[in-house]
Amino acid sequence: LPSQASILPITASHVPALRRINSLLLSVPYPDSFYAALLDPSASGLLSRAILWRDTPASDPKVIGGIVCRLEPSSTNPTTHAIYLQSLALLSPYRAQGLAAAALEHIVSSAVLLPPASWDVQSVYAHVWTENEDGLRWYAARGFQREGREPVRRYYYKLRPDTAWIVR
């Protein structure tokens, strides 16, 4: 991780910048409830992370991206859980420095520390638009594999095609 970067749990002060970044980079508009859940540890707030950057050692850190995720019961075993990556966004000048990968690693490392009796996290997954070749390559480089022979149809309402791959 570059010395200018930090990865932190999301706080209320990070939400306005994350909202702007998501609206700029992601094709899916997220409702206010999505951002409210970021501050709720029983919802998305437990494992979601902001990626921050300091231009100089004396400057205030600014939000340059983030990963929003939530714990869900596993589809294959109801006694275990999966981390669902709801959104991942990083401003382009900060890409290719390992920041998003470090944030994902931070999330997984934090999940490992959760009490297994209550969460028992077994997998991490996301939906990726079928036309998002950069995103699909990024996930594949981190060991994610596409599930199924066909993408999920009618996943995205405003995108064409409306399909997404599940990567796990």
State the main characteristics.
4 helices, 168 residues, globular
What does this structure look like?
By secondary structure, the chain is α+β, with helices and mostly antiparallel strands. Helix content is 24%, strand content 27%. The chain is built from four helices and six strands, in the order βααβββαβαβ. Keywords: Acyltransferase, Transferase.
Summarize the structure.
The protein has 168 residues and is an alpha+beta fold. The protein has four helices and six strands. The protein has a six-stranded mixed β-sheet, with helices on both faces.
Strand order of the largest sheet: 1-2-3-4-5-6
End-to-end distance: 24 Å
Class by alpha and beta content: alpha+beta
Our count of helices gives 4
- Strand count, sense and closure of the main sheet? 6 strands, mixed
Order of helices and strands: EHHEEEHEHE
Query: Strand share of the residues?
Result: 25-35%
**What's the Cα radius of gyration?**
16 Å
The overall pLDDT average reads: 93
Overall body shape: globular
Task: Point out poorly predicted stretches.
Answer: none
Based on the structure, what is the oligomeric state of the protein chains? single chain
Number of strands: 6
- Give the % helix: 10-25%
List the helices and strands and how they pair.
Layout: E1 5-9, H1 15-25, H2 32-37, E2 49-53, E3 62-73, E4 81-90, H3 99-112, E5 121-129, H4 133-141, E6 164-167
Parallel strand pairs: 4-5
Antiparallel strand pairs: 1-2, 2-3, 3-4, 5-6
Domain N-acetyltransferase: 5-162
GO biological process, one term: mitotic sister chromatid cohesion
GO molecular function: acyltransferase activity, transferring groups other than amino-acyl groups
